[in-house]
Structures are given as C-alpha cells and as structure tokens.
Amino acid sequence: MFHCSAACCEDSTASMQHVHTCIERCHAPLAQAQAGVTSELERFQDRLTRCTMDCSDKAKDAFDSGTKEPVVKQLLSSCVVKCVDDHINLIPSMTKKIQETLTAIGK
Predict the structure, then answer these.
(1) 5 neighbors 26 (Cβ within 8 angstroms)
(2) Given CA atoms 62, 64, 65, 66 in this order, what sign does their dihedral have?
(3) Separation CA 56–CA 72 (nearest Å)
(4) pTM of the predicted model, to two decimals?
(5) Which phi-psi region, left, alpha or beta, contains residue 68 (left: φ > 0; alpha: ψ -120 to 50)?
C-alpha cells in the first residue's frame, strides 16, 4: 500500500487530483478490510448488548413483581453469564467470516 502511494507521487507531471485519486485507489483495500472487520465486530457487540438488555429487563420485571433483591441479582448474574458464554461460542464463526472477508478483498 505504501509503495503504491509513493509511486503515485513520483509522476511530477500528474495533477493533484490524479495523485489524490491514485492514493485513494491504493488505500481502498485497507479501507474495505477495516469496514468489514468493524461491521462484524459491531454486529457481535450489538447481539451481546441485546442479550444483556433482555437480562436487565427480566431482572427488572422480577424485582417489580416482588422478588427479593438477592434473588434478582442472582437471576441477572446467571443470565448475563449465559449471554457471555453463548457469545464466546460465536467467536469462531465470527473469526471465519472476518477471514473470508479479508481473503475476498485480497483477491
């Protein structure tokens, strides 16, 4: 990428716009890779957040219905631990998707 960008600047007769376009073209694969990884990580984080928010809602509902605080805390804790465990199990498939995305960009 840096060699590509440097080569864009070697033509002293090229217009500023041409050099800029050339450099952007050099950086495009990196930008695509970054966007792909960011998107996959955001999807993972959103899913984990939804799961923990569901746990929070269940705990609030239990507390509002008269369940004692120590029981609610235990319910919340076990629910969040389950969310984390479930999402840890998703990491290999997420990693595979990221690798596939990066491989497709590299072609």
Answers:
(1) yes
(2) positive
(3) 10
(4) 0.77
(5) beta
